[in-house]
Specification:
Helices cover 37% and strands 25% of the residues. InterPro entries: AAA+_ATPase, ABC_AA/LPS_Transport, ABC_transporter-like_ATP-bd, BCA_ABC_TP_C, P-loop_NTPase.
Length: 271
């Protein structure tokens, strides 16, 4: 395993649902300060793996370590408090709340009792604490370029903007590791380019390590430092993007390419 340089380690993780094996003996490490992507065909176990990391699922076998600590038995809220944030493949915003309030929800683990009392009666430290949280949220709003919708009701926004608000809520806790489950899904080209830029800036400027699931291979190749490929719950490849993309097992499993056969006349054919 990666030892002191790893922010996250999955150690021989297996996951079963009754007689169905979703993950089989998967091990990998996300290095501190890198963008690590998981790819694979539909049903390969990608989201199951991220759910094991976030605490939504508990592995049947194996361990999850965050910054050297075994977090396998911890619930999602405890992992979030330690510094693991996440977004979801399907939007999980509070549609009736404003963008600002949705992002404030993301800071719930940082809000002390003084803040909660201050919601009823603003005095002393409670007022100061809320102002500090508001400043942090405004910084995120500026970073993600959503100033123009900060007071809008989240449910009225376009799909691309709602995805951006969900990212804002996930980073509101200032996690050291953020889990992104298909952040580009359903976006047009311009929205994807913006989201990719934000992810790179989170990694390079905010110092967040990133574990990402994404189907858009162009994005994965452009911004990932390393990639792991799953197929039927098993790891079939891991490494830098160019090496993984050239792996014949990956090309067969993920890209659907057949083995090349050469006829006697020297012309290639596929089977």
């Amino acid at each position: 395993m990666a030892g002191d340089t790893a922010v996250l380690e999955a150690d021989a993780v297996s996951l079963r649902f009754g007689g169905v094996r979703a993950l089989s003996d998967v091990s990998f490490a996300v290095q501190r300060g890198e963008i690590f992507s998981i790819i694979g065909p539909n049903g390969a176990g990608k989201t199951s793996m991220v759910n094991c990391v976030s605490g939504r699922y508990r592995p049947t076998e194996g361990r999850i370590l965050f910054e050297g600590q075994d977090v396998t038995p911890l619930r999602p809220n405890r992992r979030a408090a330690l510094g693991i944030g996440r977004t979801f493949q399907n939007l999980a915003l509070f549609g009736h709340m404003s963008v600002l309030d949705n992002i404030m929800v993301g800071r719930h683990n940082l809000l002390g009792a003084g803040f909660l009392r201050g919601m009823v009666y603003w005095i002393g430290g409670a007022q100061k604490e809320e102002l500090n949280h508001r400043r942090e949220v405004e910084e995120i709003i500026d970073f993600l370029e959503i100033q123009h919708v900060r007071k809008a009701t989240a449910g009225t926004l376009s799909y691309g903007l709602r995805k951006r608000v969900e990212l804002a809520r996930a980073i509101a806790l200032k996690p050291r590791l953020i889990l992104l489950d298909e952040p580009m899904a359903g976006m047009n080209l311009e929205e994807k380019e913006d989201m990719a830029r934000f992810i790179v800036d989170l990694n390079e400027e905010w110092g967040m390590s990133v574990l990402m699931i994404e189907h858009d291979m162009g994005v994965v190749m452009d911004i990932s430092h390393r990639i792991m490929v799953l197929d039927f719950g098993r790891k079939i490849a891991e490494g830098v993007p160019d090496a993984v993309l050239a792996d014949p097992d990956v090309r067969r499993a993920y890209l659907g390419e057949a083995d090349e056969v050469v006829h006697e006349d020297g012309e290639p054919a596929t089977t």
